[in-house]
Design goal:
alpha+beta; 3 domains; 4-stranded antiparallel β-sheet
Length: 289
């Protein structure tokens, strides 16, 4: 079903639901790329949608949490046309052992037109990690790997080698003295400290750069218009694998084409994803099982 036509955003206010200074990187990009003026939903506690430090478990998906923040933004600014939110997710890489992966999502909703647009960034460029420390030396060894103190740390209790924020939690560690004191407290209470990277945006410059990248992706998607109806967000919705192996000729896992789809009128375009006519045999399940 076609959506309502989108009016220009020249100096349109967009409410951003964030507690962690994401406007620093998002606002300039959205102003220059879309004409949006970003204003914060001041006083809205986004921790209720989930915390990295586990006091509040995030329910639902990354996108569900971003949508919940959008709803909160519109509640804060009932006359706003546009709302914005961001949500990050961190964990092991799905295919490369021992490599962490950060995923960032930036969501924009225009409730006047019905437009819902998302920008993404997924990268192993993250300091996400943790260590179990029994003394200051073990804690500081991990801190060096985690790019501390430019990047913040969180120290919590540890029980059976698992995080135990209910026993002890300190989220305000930005210098060596604070780290040493927090580790000492956790060891006294639990026998060990669970030390992990602070993934909140204002304490993690690497994550802030990923949010910036996801915001640029959102602007790119907005300007990617459907050739049939001119609706924003005409982008890749499916990747088709099957480039033949250079040795045996059988289909491989290599992407050969991409399918772009319009969310408004359903128009679809298939485009080639490679100039190669054959795949490296290392990508073949038969030649390199």
């Amino acid at each position: 079903m076609p959506h309502t036509a989108i009016k220009p955003y020249h100096n349109t206010v967009a409410v951003l639901t964030s507690m962690h200074a994401k406007e620093r990187v998002m606002a300039p990009i959205l102003r220059d790329g879309l004409g949006l003026i970003v204003e914060l939903a001041i006083g809205v506690n986004t921790d209720r949608f989930g915390t990295f430090s586990r006091e509040v478990e995030r329910t639902g998906s990354q996108l569900d949490a971003a949508k919940a923040k959008i709803i909160a933004g519109f509640e804060y600014a009932p006359f706003a046309r546009v709302a914005l939110s961001s949500e990050g997710s961190f964990g092991p890489h799905p295919s490369i052992p021992f490599l962490p992966l950060g995923r960032e999502l930036v969501l924009m909703v225009d409730r006047e037109s019905g437009l819902e647009l998302t920008g993404y960034d997924a990268s192993p460029e993250t300091n996400f990690g943790h260590a179990i420390a029994h003394d200051r030396n073990e804690a500081f060894a991990f801190a060096q790997l985690a790019k501390f103190p430019e990047h913040g740390l969180i120290v919590m209790g540890c029980k059976d080698e698992q995080p135990a924020p209910d026993l002890m939690l300190n989220k305000n560690i930005t210098d060596a003295a604070a780290l040493e004191a927090a580790v000492r407290d956790a060891v006294r209470i639990c026998g060990a400290a669970f030390v992990e990277t602070d993934m909140r945006a204002h304490r993690n410059p690497t994550r802030m750069a990923a949010i910036e990248s996801a915001t640029r992706d959102l602007v790119r998607r907005f300007h990617s218009r459907c050739p049939n109806c001119d609706y924003p967000g005409f982008d890749v919705t499916e990747r088709i694998t099957g480039l033949p192996c250079a040795w045996c000729g059988e289909p491989t896992r290599v992407v050969v084409a991409e399918l772009l789809t319009c969310r408004s009128c359903g128009h679809r375009v298939e485009r080639s994803a490679t100039i190669d006519t054959a795949a490296d045999p290392g990508q073949c399940g038969g030649c390199n099982p």
